[in-house]
Amino acid sequence: MTAPVQPNSYKTGPDERGYFGIYGGRFVAETLMPLILELQQAYDDAKADPAFHAELQALSTYYAGRPSKLYFAEGLTKHLGGARIFFKREDLNHTGSHKINNCLGQILLAKRMGKTRIIAETGAGQHGVASATVAARFGLPCVVYMGATDVERQAPNVFRMKLLGATVNPVTAGNGTLKDAMNEALRDWVSNVEDTYYLIGTAAGPHPYPELVRDFQSVIGTEARAQMLEQEGRLPDMIIAAVGGGSNAIGLFHPFLDDKDVEIVGVEAGGHGIDVENGHAASMTGGRPGVLHGNRTYLLQDADGQILEGHSVSAGLDYPGVGPEHSWLRDTGRVQYVPIVDQEALDAFQLCTRVEGIIPALESAHAIAEAVKRAPTMGKDKTIIVNLSGRGDKDVHTVGKLLGMDI
Amino acid sequence: MTETRIDRRFASLKSEGRPALVTFMTAGDPDPATTLALLKALPGAGADVIELGMPFSDPMADGPAIQAAGLRALKGGQTLVKTLDLVREFRKTDDATPIVLMGYYNPIYQHGSEAFVADAKAAGVDGLIIVDLPPEADDELCLPALEAGLNFIRLATPTTDDKRLPAVLANTSGFVYYVSINGITGSAAPDASRVAESVARIKRHTHLPVSVGFGVRTAEQAAAIGANADGVVVGSAIVSAVAASLDSEGRATPATVPAVLALVSDLAGGVRAARKSVAA
Ligand SMILES: Cc1ncc(COP(=O)(O)O)c(C=O)c1O
């Protein structure tokens, strides 16, 4: 594949057909096409409406707890002895991750569109919890599709969703993980087109989802950029985020894309290792472009174009695709995407817990693991922002099991 | 575009005064030999057009029956290339029955759209139904397919309103597939009178034949839907008949082919009765 020309700005996408270069688009069944066009219209209207922004801003501040802090991780910095590491504390948001940013934006859209029923897919359960939360807040019924495997490994979140009044539908198709849950949510949507809003949890899916999820998550990067300027008087040298579908990563990255001196690193789930067939979830490192879930993007697939399940110790990262904007950023070379394997993430999880007193989500631990590799190679005058996309309470069972501890 | 087997088949059924029975099954379910045996026998049992599903790991528009059929086929090692081989084999003995490949875009995209339309045409395929390629994506496959002389059959749905219909119909050829319900394959049966209205609505926009599918399972339903449509598509009921005939390991049994043929004969009786009451 030839590298696309370097654009003047990396922030102008998508085009009006929903493409970032060759990635993105609207590859959906005809039943959904009118709905997606309707959503596009509603989003365009909302973007132009100050009342929409004001309502979102108020909810972000008083309900979600924004702005999230930019925290100097002194313990980790000392331990690694190199670049100074800052955490963008999305783990401190209401519901415990960045997912709430997107859910608040989308529930307001759903309300504007007059929809009365919310559906969502979830992997780690963080998006399911955030969806159930905003649905409860706005008094709408919510159905969450979750792979049966994930229901098992993220049990605490399943219970939270149920407490919040959501119906959790375990999906047994395929391997029972995130992609299967997404298929099932799409099936629900085509069957309930009149009243249902599909609240997608990551910056993927048919246009305009990748764009609107990115916009709602960009508050992360916008805040972090301003906070760094205020706290340190300059931009960071490097920013790092974990990439599942890519929402926390694009949210951090987007406001920095045209800051040429800021190095941007996306961390994919390397699972058992990139060389292990179907043993990882690094679609951009180990996959090739294809079409799934409404968009063209890098996918894990076999020679016949059948989608592989992928594997990661982290339920929120084991998705065989990635948001289309990341695929484009990869090809342009603006962002480097690298894999972190399960063991490295587990080590970073424990390290962060011990030296910072912060239990990170296993997803976020992948980003921390990359900082663990990079910081010691950088000068002490350099700075790194790591997106701490979520807290790790949901993962203590998984980690306990892997460490052979009895819980 | 030159006339295809699909065009000829619908024209001749029109002069016969009855709707087409369009049967769907998944290629390679549960193995290629069974599919080939079925392909060869279906026209004799009364299938007028054969839709052959290309299995995909993530069939987002399909219900449990067709999902399961796809999984069985993939487990048996079915691939896009093997599906084309089945069509090629079928064409050695049948040059009249139209074959429509139905599936999702990614396996085709991996094969390469240009190569795929050439290979499909050479194998004896007549038309394509690709669920996740709306008219907005016509340059991906639809236009190359039309150029190669393959029909590109589009789905129209209850959400396709009059404003959108012209765009959906613009590059459609062969026939229009009206999805009678908002939902996935194998959902509840549609209401025949509402279907009649919808077919009439589509026919105000096109001269193409309109076939109706999703939810048709029995000869009676086929007759009722066929009274007002040019074709009736049956899929989930057929793949369910395959499923019911398999042994406990999911392998075909001597009952598999006869079970499907019995159902298709019955459905063929339905479409043949569709206009009887109208004519009388
Ligand atoms: C805490 C956390 N971080 C990251 C992710 C990965 O998703 P995304 O790549 O969309 O940010 C998840 C997904 O569940 C998550 O819960």
Summarize the structure.
Chain A has 407 residues and is an alpha/beta fold. Helices cover 42% and strands 18% of the residues of chain A.
Write the layout of secondary structure elements.
The complex is a heterodimer of chains A (407) and B (280).
Chain A: E1 19-20, E2 23-27, H1 33-47, H2 50-64, E3 70-72, H3 74-80, E4 84-89, H4 99-112, E5 117-122, H5 126-137, E6 142-147, H6 148-153, H7 155-163, E7 167-171, H8 178-191, E8 196-198, H9 209-217, H10 219-232, E9 238-242, H11 247-253, E10 263-271, H12 283-286, E11 288-292, E12 294-299, H13 324-332, E13 335-341, H14 342-356, H15 362-374, E14 383-388, H16 396-402
Parallel strand pairs in A: 4-14, 5-6, 5-8, 6-7, 9-10, 9-14, 10-13
Antiparallel strand pairs in A: 1-2, 2-12, 3-4, 11-12
Helix pairs in contact in A: 2-4, 3-14, 4-5, 4-9, 5-7, 9-11, 10-11, 14-15
Chain B: H1 5-16, E1 20-26, H2 32-45, E2 49-53, H3 64-75, H4 80-91, E3 99-103, H5 105-111, H6 113-123, E4 127-130, H7 142-147, E5 151-152, E6 155-156, H8 165-170, E7 176-179, H9 192-203, E8 210-213, H10 219-226, E9 231-234, H11 236-245, H12 256-273, H13 276-279
Parallel strand pairs in B: 1-2, 1-9, 2-3, 3-4, 4-5, 6-7, 7-8, 8-9
Helix pairs in contact in B: 2-4, 2-12, 3-11, 4-6, 10-12, 11-12
The structure holds pyridoxal-5'-phosphate.
